[in-house]
From TrEMBL:
It holds the Pfam family UQ_con. PANTHER family: UBIQUITIN-CONJUGATING ENZYME E2. Residues 27-55 are annotated as: Disordered. The lineage of its organism: Eukaryota, Metazoa, Spiralia, Gnathifera, Rotifera. SMART domains: UBCc (SM00212). Gene3D superfamilies: Ubiquitin Conjugating Enzyme. InterPro entries: Ub_conjugating_enzyme, UBC, UBQ-conjugating_enzyme/RWD. It comes from the Eukaryota. SUPFAM superfamilies: UBC-like. This is UBC core domain-containing protein. CDD domains: UBCc_UEV. Residues 25-179 form the UBC core domain.
C-alpha cells in the first residue's frame, strides 16, 4: 500500500507541475510551481521537518509542495502569494492541507496560516481530488472569501461591512511581505 500511496503522490505532483507550466503560458497565471520535498528524492517519499511548526505533531508526517498563487480580484490584482501544500503520508486517503506563506488577515485563514477550504474537509471524497483542484480552490478562496464559514470573524465582518478597509489591509500586508 505504501508504494501505491507514493505512486499517487508522484502522479498528482507531476500533474500539478505540468498544469503549472500550462498556466504560465496563458494570459492569466493562476499558479507557479516553486519546489517540493519530492525533488531529488529518488525512490523515497521525503518529509520536510523545517516546516513542521504549523502542522502535524508528527515531524515526519507530510510531503511539502511550495508554489505561488495569483488571485486576480481586488485587492490582490494578480500579485503572487506563497503557499505550501502538505500531503500526509496517507494521501490520498487524507486530504492535503494548504498554508499561506505570509501573515494575512483573511476570513478563511487561521492564525497559523492554514487555509480553511471547504473542499479539503476530511469528510470529502479526497481520493478523487487532484492537486490542481486544490490550487484552484485556494485561488478562489482568496478571490471570494467565505464569510459565512470564517475562522477569523473580526476580519469576516470587516470584509462584509467595510470592503474598502479590508482591501486596504490586505494590500498593505501583501505589499510589505511579498516582492512582485
Amino acid at each position: 500500500m505504501a508504494d501505491s500511496v507514493s505512486d499517487q503522490i508522484r502522479k498528482d505532483y507531476k500533474e500539478l507541475k505540468d498544469w503549472s507550466g500550462l498556466s504560465d503560458k496563458t494570459s492569466r497565471r493562476v499558479y507557479e510551481h516553486q519546489s517540493s520535498s519530492l525533488e531529488d528524492a529518488g525512490d523515497n517519499i521525503p518529509t520536510d521537518e523545517r516546516e513542521n511548526n504549523n502542522a502535524s505533531s508528527d515531524p515526519a508526517a507530510f510531503v511539502v509542495i511550495y508554489g505561488w498563487i495569483y488571485p486576480s480580484s481586488e485587492p490582490f490584482n494578480g500579485k503572487k502569494l506563497p503557499i505550501q501544500i502538505r500531503l500526509a503520508k496517507a494521501y490520498p486517503f487524507l486530504p492535503p492541507t494548504v498554508y499561506m506563506g505570509i501573515q494575512l488577515r483573511h476570513p478563511n485563514i487561521e492564525e497559523n496560516g492554514r487555509m480553511c477550504i471547504d473542499l479539503l474537509n476530511p469528510e470529502t471524497e479526497s481520493e478523487k481530488l487532484s492537486l490542481v483542484k486544490v490550487v484552484e480552490a485556494a485561488v478562489k478562496l482568496m478571490d471570494e472569501p467565505n464569510t459565512d464559514s470564517s475562522v477569523d470573524t473580526e476580519t469576516a465582518v470587516l470584509c462584509q461591512k467595510d470592503r474598502l478597509n479590508y482591501n486596504r489591509n490586505i494590500t498593505t500586508a501583501v505589499n510589505t511581505q511579498v516582492s512582485r
